[in-house]
Amino acid sequence: MKLKELAMSLLLALVLVACASIGTPDGGPYDEEPPVLLKATPVLNATGVKTAKISLEFDENVTLENAFENVVVSPPQMQMPEIKNSGKKVTVELFDSLKPNTTYSIDFGNAIVDNNESNPYENFAYVFSTGENVDTLAVSGTVLTAAELEPVKGMVVGLHSCLDDSAFTKTPFERVSRTDSRGRFTIKGIAPGKYRVYALSDANQNFLFDQKSEAIAYLSTIVEPHTAPAVRPDTIWRDSITIDTIRFVNYTRFMPDDLVLRVFKEDFASQYLIKYIREPHNKLKLFFAAPNNELPLLEGLDFDMSDAYVLEKSVKMDTLTYWFKDSLLYRNDTLALRLSYKAVEVSGDSVDRCDTLFVSTKKRWEAVLKQQQKNYEEDVKNFMRQAKRSPDYDENNPPVYVPKTKVLPVRFSGSSSMDINGRCHFSFEEPLLSIDTSAIHVSLKVDTLWVPVDMVFLQDSTNIRKYDIFAEWRPEQTYMVTADSAAFKGLYGGVSEAFSREMTFKSLDEYAVLYVNVTGVGNNGILQLLDARENVVMEEKTVNGRCAFYFINPGTYYMRLIFDANGNGKWDTGNFEKGIQPENVSYYHHSLNLRAFFEYTQDDWDVSMPLNEQKPLEITKQKPDKERRKMNRNATRNFK
Fold first, then answer.
1. How many angstroms separate the first and last alpha carbons of the chain?
2. What is the pLDDT of residue 3?
3. Whether residue 19 has pLDDT greater than 80
């Protein structure tokens, strides 16, 4: 009986497994094949074309991905073409009149994909001609930012057969392309001849440089497209990971194919007053759209401004802060002012501008006084509450409340562990009225004693509320910075309290040293040590192509070299009208992993390496778009 029951249980289990297996859908194999073009109207490479409507028919349903970004029509169209798809068809209608004897190319790139798995019809360009011949030459290259060598995506690159520079500013491009995520471009359908090549961030989409705010690039040399026979390897794969054979294929190379255009914006910006803020009553901030070459003039309409404020300027004078000194002035809820400055219009013209400003505060002065009185009364109550708790309290002779002196907050940059080249400074919330330098001290710890050392106390050159302390800081030594009470007095009555901070400077063993040698640079190089976010950690000028970085904290670094042609100590942009290219920049093509207590020498920097190959990918912000990779998913499914 037990044997029979066991057999029945096994039979029932097999039936249940079989039923479950039957109910599992397979789904069929994945579609890995791209769509196939069956018909084009007019036909590919047709000549004598009169129609501006193009129809493409494929063997399966297709869709367009980001047609506006990915599809480029050349010659460029002033009216936006209509590009759409329906089922198996893609249609294009050009609304500009067709030019006679002209080759047209509609470069789809990888924009046409099938509906199922988004397999692209790769690198497809539809070409036709309104004349008797189809022009087939092409040029290609890369567009990079001039200062950081970043690939520029979506930039318009165009050609002019007119070799006069004025063509770039007065005439639309004759043929165009658009850069991909790697900054790469290919301009197709070019007739034999000589050309100028330009790149443009075409803000108004008119294919010419007519706005100073547009980023541009141009080649100083003339380009003559041509072809040459060439050979390339062709890899045949046995499967997705195994190479079967490598053969060499003859092909026609379209040249030049290694152009590099360096994008820059000219040293221009529209200049105007963006906004002004008066908060609190005693502080007015003006924000400008661009740096001021000369200080704007601010005048009171019904009061004298000549000695009414302390002015705080940003480095480029694009932000100005006016700290009003007289309470009789700043207690007014609205101040009428006249501002005169040099404005720069979009056209680039400089004009004198005079604006009348009525600057008000969000909170009225009456409300400020009420809050101050409320705070005072609360302080008195707290004082009396504490006094009554004292055993010495005499109700007939109560203590008198004396308001506390307003405290001026003091911020100090020094910390318990300091870098050898670290800077120590005090900073304050408001400008200072006075400083007692005799009340500021620096002492060195010798055994258990504090020994005074010489120091220099100076106001920072770029910030009036910041003061630097300089002393002979030595490694592995401990210092004490102190300031007696009332050492600093603020513009609005605040007085600092006593302050002290102990600091120990790091050992030399905790740092790395880097020596760099770059050939062909001489004394005109500015070498920058960068962190992973491309922030400048250190900067040194080259001497005979050499420079040294000391006191480097361990970590991973990168290097950028500026070829400072004019010797002004900074990178300079270009100017198209004057024929000035931006100053050259080079990146060391590897990262540097620097460890403590090591000295490194780097002398293999090849600045002649192609610019588009120099910058390490890990700090390149514009990463290449992920390419579709065909996976052997059918094999994976069959295996399962």
1. 40
2. 46
3. no
Count of alpha carbons within 13 angstroms of residue 93, beta-carbon side: 4
Q: What is the pLDDT of residue 633?
A: 43
**For residue 495, how many other CB atoms are within 10 A of its CB?**
16
Kindly report, residue by residue over 150-161, the tens digit of the pLDDT. Answer: 999 999 999 999
Q: How far apart are CA 142 and CA 348, in angstroms?
A: 30
Task: Kindly tell me if the per-residue pLDDT of 513 is higher than 90.
Answer: yes
Residue 232 is predicted with a pLDDT of 84
C-alpha gyration radius of the chain: 36
What is the percent of the chain with per-residue pLDDT over 70, rounded to a whole number? Answer: 92
What pLDDT, on a 0 to 100 scale, did the predictor assign at position 627? Answer: 53
pLDDT at 17: 44
φ and ψ at residue 449, rounded to 5 degrees: -105, 150
Q: What is the pLDDT of residue 279?
A: 87
Token pair in block for residue 234: 């062709």
Tell me the residue type at 252: T
Instruction: Give the integer Cα–Cα distance in Å for 378 and 208.
Output: 68
- What's the pLDDT band for 20 if we cut at 50, 70, 90? very low
Residues 514 and 599: their CA atoms lie apart, in Å, by 6
**Quick check: 580 and 565 in contact, CB under 8 A?**
no
Domains along the chain with CATH numbers: 37-225+256-262 (2.60.40.1220), 273-362 (2.60.40), 411-506 (2.60.40.3710), 511-609 (2.60.40.10)
> What burial class does residue 434 get, using C-beta atoms within 10 Å of its C-beta: 0-12 exposed, 13-18 middle, 19+ buried?
exposed
Distance from C-alpha of 414 to C-alpha of 468, rounded to nearest angstrom: 11
Question: Among 262, 341, 327, 258, which residue's Cα sits nearest to residue 294?
Answer: 341
For Cα atoms 263, 293, 429, give the angle at the middle one, nearest 5 degrees. 100
The helix or strand, by DSSP H or E, that contains position 634, with its residue range, turns out to be helix 633-639
**DSSP class per residue in 21-36:** HHT---------PPP-
210, 204 contact by CB (below 8 A) = yes
Phi, psi of 205, deg, nearest 5: 55, 45
Residue 601: its H or E element: strand 599-602
